[in-house]
Amino acid sequence: MKMKNAILSGIIIGVVSVIWVIIMHFAGINPENVKESDNRWLEYTSVIIPIIGLYLGIRGFKNRNNNSLTFFEGVFEGFKIMAISGLIAGAFSSLYFSFLNLEFSSDYMERIFGAAIIGFLVTLASSLLLMTKPKQL
């Protein structure tokens, strides 16, 4: 199955991200009060999850592909991983704002857009770092 790596990596990123949001919620840390506290670094740690997950997912694809990866194979694999993790995050977000955090933050849409841009940049960087066939760029 060609999608096995992307599905597994996407699920891992999505589930770990969901767990992180739940931990932050029950610790009383949310985007509104983080801005006014010394815990702002906690908010940025959530970015590390998809960065590491995307890199490891693309690297896993390369390893399963006889240690061979073109730039576009890496980018495509990264997009598949982001799509799977995005579906999980979207499903969780709808539940989160329905049951745990009833106040929808306007800042939330900016965060989704920022996460997509970061995911795209990490996918490009990981593909460049891991590609083995530079002539096929």
Task: Tell me about this structure.
The protein is built from five helices and no strands. It is mainly α. The chain has one domain (4-136). Helix 1 (4-26) runs parallel beside helix 4 (71-100), helix 3 (40-64) packs parallel to helix 5 (107-130) and helix 4 (71-100) packs antiparallel against helix 5 (107-130). The longest helix has 30 residues, at 71-100. It is elongated, with a radius of gyration of 16 Å. The model has no long low-confidence stretch (mean pLDDT 83).
Short synopsis of the structure:
Keywords: Membrane, Transmembrane, Transmembrane helix. This is DUF4199 family protein. The protein is mainly alpha-helical and 137 residues long.
Domains, number: 1
Average pLDDT score: 83
Task: Write the element-wise H/E pattern from the N-terminal end onward.
Answer: HHHHH
List low-pLDDT spans: none
- Determine the N-to-C terminus distance: 25 Å
Principal-axis shape: elongated
| Structural class computed from helices and strand pairing | mainly alpha
In DSSP terms (H or I, runs of 4 or more residues), the helix count works out at: 5
InterPro entries: DUF4199
Keywords: Membrane, Transmembrane, Transmembrane helix
Protein name: DUF4199 family protein
Pfam families: DUF4199
